[in-house]
Design a protein that fits this description.
Length: about 100
């Protein structure tokens, strides 16, 4: 049984997004929207995340991700794919 309103989106956020508390901000935003998933820094300077939950909350999170926290300068939010679901909590993962 799958709910057609539930979506999972894997994204790559580029710009000045490391060293500005982007991951902590992202986790707080996602949890406040009721999303599950994860966020992590990448060694190339980007931030990668997986957001899972209702379509409306995902849309809100993607819009928020374009701005990020106050000191971030987001250049882009690219959707890498959709599919895999994280069903419990939202975590900050180690850098890859």
């Amino acid at each position: 049984m799958s709910d057609p309103d539930i979506r999972s989106v894997h994204v790559l956020i580029s710009g000045r997004v490391q060293g500005v508390s982007y991951r902590a901000w992202c986790a707080d935003e996602a949890v406040s929207l009721g999303l599950t998933g994860w966020v992590r820094n990448r060694s190339d300077g980007a931030v990668e995340a997986l957001f899972c939950g209702p379509q409306a909350a995902i849309s809100t999170m993607l819009q928020a991700a374009e701005d990020g926290p106050i000191h971030a300068r987001v250049e882009g939010v690219a959707i890498l794919g959709e599919g895999d679901m994280e069903t419990e909590g939202f975590e900050i993962r180690p850098t890859v």
